[in-house]
Structures are given as C-alpha cells and as structure tokens.
Amino acid sequence: MTAIVDYGVGNLFSLSSSLRALGVETEITRSAARLRAADRIILPGVGAFGDAKEKLASTGLVPVLLEAAEEKPLLGICLGMQLLFEKGFEYGEHAGLGLIPGVVADLRNDLEDSALKVPHMGWNRLEIVTDDPLFRYFRDGEYVYYVHSFYAKDCAESTLGVSEYGNVRVTGAVRRGNVWGTQFHPEKSGDAGLRLLRAFAEL
Length: 203
Known about the structure:
The chain is α/β, with parallel strands linked by helices and 203 residues long.
C-alpha cells in the first residue's frame, strides 16, 4: 500500500486518483499506524515552507516520517520535496526535515533575466543527471509540470534531474537513500508523470 500523508496541505485528490489509475493501492491518511504499515509513503505539499512544516509538526507525524525514511521509499512532491531539506528561506528561516542536505531558496534571487516570471510555472524539460530506478520508465528530456517560487540548492550530490529556467538549473528531482523528491508535480505531468509514479510504486 502507498500512503499519502494528509496534513492539510496540498491537492491530495489528483495524486491519489493518478495512483489508483495505475492500479496502485492508495490511502490518504494522517494515522501514524497506517504510515508505519505502508510499503511506501508520499509527502505532497503546496503553499509556504514554514506554514507547511508547522502543520506537519502539529500532526505528530514528523518522527514517524523520519523513522520511515530509514526503511521504506519516501517521495516528497513540490513543497513536500522542499520539506525534505535542512532549511527553507520562505518568509524567514525555517527548519526542514533534514533528510537531504541542502537549502530551499528564493528563485528570484538567482535569476538574471528579470523578464522571466516567478513562480516558475508550466512545462519544462527534465534533464536526467544521475540514472535512478525512479526513471525506469522515464526518458531523458521529457517535459514535466512545475509551479514554484523557491527551489532546492547546494544539493548537487543528491540531484537526479534538473530543468533550465534562464540561467538557473532548477533542481527537479533528488534522492538520498530511501528518500526521493520531485519539485515538479508528477500527477500533473501527463503520461511521463504517471510513468514516474509507476516506477515509484514498484520500489
């Protein structure tokens, strides 16, 4: 069973619908027992880093997720991926889960072309920089769907894929041990995204 963490942040319906369309047994839950029983866990998220971390902490599930990351596949999506890092700088400095070394910074501070809009929103090409089982059914250069204003950096050792946005190489996918993350939304990325979710469901 694949458990999707429900902590009041994110559109859980489209993600669960995509997984069920793939024939993956899926459960949306905020139960520590159900997360412990799951074969793998997905941490979704939209919104601001600090607010999301606070909501996640209020559920009491942070220790459960840290424990799970030692023994089963965990995938963070969009803001869920950002929360995997050590800290984020959206509306102040906030501690993340610390599962992946690196920080989450404002994209605007690094973009040289002021004509480029932030948030970085829409389809962009994902370049695979490190082969991984997550890309088992995914081809280098396929397009994925992004919506974000902050991005992970100082995380080259964990980076699996990047997308170019002006002069910035946006961290698109990461992995450290049993922990994966995608800045883009696989559930909104058409067939390519479904194939990526299929690969995760087989880990």
